[in-house]
Input
Amino acid sequence: MPAEETLLALKRRITELLPTDVSVIGVEFEGPELVLYTEDTQRFVDDGALVRTLAKELKKRISVRPSSDILMDPEKASKAIHEIIPEEGGIKDIYFDMDKAEVIIEAEKPGLVIGTHGATLREVAKEIGWRPNVIRAPPIQSPIIKSIRRYLREESDFRKSFLKKVGRRIYRDKSKEDEWLRITALGGCREVGRNSFLLSTPETRILIDCGVSVGSEGTPYLYVPEVTPLSDLDAVVITHAHLDHTGLVPLLFQYAYDGPIYMTQPTRDLMVLLLLDYLEVAAREGKKIPYKSTRIRDAIRHTIPLKYGDVTDISPDVKLTLYNAGHILGSSVVYFHVGNGLHNIAFTGDIKYERTFLFDPAFNGFPRLETLIMESTYGGTNDMQPPRREAEKNLKDAIVKTIERKGKVIIPAFAVGRSQEVMIALEGMDLEVPVYLDGMIWEATSIHTAYPEYLNKKLKNSIFQGENPFLSDIFVQVDDSEKRKSIIGDGEPSIILATSGMLNGGPVLEHLKGLAGDEKNTLVFVGYQAEGTLGRRIQKGWNEIQLADEGKIRNVKIKMDIHTVDGFSGHSDRNQLVEFVRGIKPLPSKVMCMHGENNKCLALASGIHKKFNIDTVAPMNLETLRLV
Output
C-alpha cells in the first residue's frame, strides 16, 4: 500500500478511536514516529490514555503536536514566556525544537516555572501554542550544544522534509518474501579501531558505527559490494561518540548517503565535539583531512536522537532499541528485533558492566536475544582490573609522591568519559594543588552536566543539590598556549589532566615536551593505550621519543616516572565481560567477539564457549556470517 493510502487509513482509524470532540488536522510519518497534528493538544496532555490507546491499537510510536497555525513566532513566544514566568524561576535559556513543536525552558528553579499543579505551564502553552518542556539549567553552559541547537533551528525546513522522507521509507511495504539475516564485519574485528558492521536482511541494510583507527588512521571497508552503494543504506546506528566508532560518519555523506543516523542526544553532541577536534588536529599536524567540516553539519541534520528503552521502527522489518552501555555519556548497547520474531541481535559497542562514578552498569536485561556481538578490549585470560577504590588509592599514591618531591603529574585522558571519572576521583582526594584541565575536557564536562538523566542517581542528585564535583575550586581551565607555558615553567607542584588519552596529538604533547626530562615529574596512564600509539611506546619503556616542535622534529628524553593505574577504564575487564553474558536470560545462542587485539578476541570467545557451552566466534574483518 503506498504511503498516502496508509496515512489515509490511519487517519480514519484514529478518528474512530478518539472522542468525537477531539479533532486531528493532519497525520504524517516523520522519521520513526506517526505524528498527529491538532489544535486540541491540551486534551492529549490532560488525558495520557488517549495516546497510549492509539499506540497500542496502531502499533506505532505516536507523537502529538500543535498545528503550525497556532504556533507563535519564536521571538514573540520567548518574550511571552518571560512575561508569564516569575523572575525567581531563573530562566537561563529558551530554545525551540522545531521537529517536535516544543519549547524547552532551562531554569534554575523548574518548580517555580511549572507552577502549582502545572498552572503556569498551562498558561504558557495556551498563550504561545508550543508545548513547553521545563528542565533544570545545566551548571556549565556548553557552546557546542548551543551551536547545534541554533543550526537545527536554521535547518527546520530541511528537517521537516527529511523526516517525512525517512518515515515513508521506514513504513514502506515489504517487497520480498525471503527471510534471512547476515552480519558483515567492515572493521574492528581482532583489532581496536575503525569499528563498523553491516546488518543485512532481504529488505534492509543498516550500518552500525563508522570509526577510524586512532594512530594508524585505518578506515572501514566501505567499498566492498555488501555495503555499496552507500545511498542504498536504510540507516546508520551509532553506539557512542568515540572516534573509533564515529570518526568517518561525515564521510558517508560525501559518498551519497542521505539517510538517518540514530543515536542518543548526548552521543550526537559529543560526536560533534570530537569530530571537530579530529579535523583540527589533522590540519595542525599536516595530515590528510578526510572530509570538510560541512560534512559534520550534514551528520547533525540527519541525526534522529533516541532515548534509552524506546522501541523504534527503522525499516519495514527491523526495530531498534538503545540501552545504557555504561561506557561514556549516552553510550548504547544497540538491540535489533528483526522480522516478526525472526531474530534478536545486540551490539554492545564498548561496555562497562560495573557501577562507576558516572554511570550505572551496562544493561543486559534483553527481552530475548539470539546473537550477541561484544567488545573484547580486555578479554584476555589475565585481563583483570582492580576495584575502583584500589585504583583511586594507586593514583593518589603516585600523585602524593610526586607532590612531595615538588614535581608535576601529567595524566593523559580521553576528553569524554575518562577525564570526568578522574576528575571526580581527584576532587575526593583532598589534594592541595591545582588540577589543570587542558584540551576539550571542560567542554566535554559541560555536555555531561547538560544531561544529568544519563548519569547515575548519586551523581545526578549531587548536581541537582548544588554539590557538583565538576565545579570544585581545584579545577582550573587551560584555554591558551600562554597559560600552558606558565604551568610548565612555574616550578610549582600540580596535576595536569590533558588530552589526548593515547598521546597521539593534542595539548598533552606540549606538557610532555616541557616536563618529560625532569625526574621529579610523573606520567600516569589511566586508560588503554592502543598498539602503534605514542602512549603504548612509552608504556613499553621507550626512553626517547620524537615530537614536533615549531615545525621541526625534536628528540625528547623520558626521565620522568611512568605509571599505569588500571581500574579507571570505561571498558569491562575479563570477569565483567563474562558476567555480562551470564546475566542475559536466557543465554544467547551465539556470541561474536570483536573490538580487541587478536589474542584478546580469541581468548574471550574460547572462554565464553567453555563456560556457557555457547557457539562463539572471533570473526576477521570482511567476513560475513549468516545468522538465520
Q: What stands out?
A: The mean pLDDT is 93. The longest helix spans residues 265-284. Residues 181-381+571-626 form a domain with the Metallo-beta-lactamase; Chain A fold (CATH 3.60.15.10). The radius of gyration is 25 Å.
